[in-house]
Amino acid sequence: MHGTEHFDGTKLFLFLGNELLTIRRDHRPDIPWPGRLDVPGGGREAGETPTDCVLRETREEVGLILTPDDLIWQRFYNEPIRAWFFAAHLPGDRVQDVVFGNEGTGWALMPPHEYAAHAQAIPHFRDRLRAYLRG
């Protein structure tokens, strides 16, 4: 996996049924994209692989435990930070297992095409989601 040693974080396009799980970011001026619609993920901890990072962040942020086999797509992006993006599709009934963590102001499910066009979505995440959806 190219970029496994030199990356800053990960993000996950997590589908529960046909819906994308989104997180509303905190409204703090000291973080990038305050108040915007985000997806699970975050910064790398020492020595983590991209897979370890995205699985840990997903567990911490929304309480869902995924396995590496759940990750069906991955792509490395070098801008604005060096980050791995992943996608996973879980059954819709896994929504009952969501336990929102302490980052952000809430979570919601939305159709992926709605997120890809939403004015409050993080702009480069919209583009990356569109790339994933196009295949």
Automatic annotation (TrEMBL):
The keyword Transferase does not apply. It comes from the Bacteria. Keywords: Hydrolase. The keyword Hydrolase applies. One of its GO terms (molecular function) is hydrolase activity. Residues 5-133 form the Nudix hydrolase domain. Pfam families: NUDIX (PF00293). Its cofactor is Mg(2+). InterPro entries: NUDIX_hydrolase-like_dom_sf, NUDIX_hydrolase_CS, NUDIX_hydrolase_dom. This is 8-oxo-dGTP diphosphatase. It comes from Roseovarius pacificus. The lineage of its organism: Bacteria, Pseudomonadati, Pseudomonadota, Alphaproteobacteria, Rhodobacterales.
